[in-house]
Amino acid sequence: MLCPKCGTENTDQAESCIQCHESLLHQPLVNADTNQQKSETQASDTLTVRAKESAHASDKEKPVVSMGVNIAIIIGTIIFPVVGVAMGYTYLKKDHPDARKAGRNWLVLGLIVFLVEILLINLMKK
Fold this sequence. Notes:
This protein is mostly helical. It folds into two domains: 1-61, no CATH class; 67-125. 67% of the residues lie in helices and 0% in strands. It is built from four helices and no strands. α2 (67-79) packs parallel to α4 (97-125). It is rod-shaped and about 90 Å long. The relative contact order is 0.08.
């Protein structure tokens, strides 16, 4: 028996779809030829939809700035503030809002660390 929602083939005794759990209790019986045609059409439609969903999902999951790059630039900025200033300025020019946000954060961190280091050097001189 075909699920009317997702097109998955289920046993005739099934009460709900094994794929989407849609109720199959009140589904009309269909002859084998029509069943086969619907199965092929729905299977191809399902594959097309799943391919589109996976393409969109991979776009959403991939961050503009990875966690590793972010951590590396933060550590580099703490050691060498010019890293944060340079990377921040570079990323502020990008079109993506997440890239601009990361750039702003790195730039601000670089400037703060630079000022703190200048203050510490001045305190050590006294």
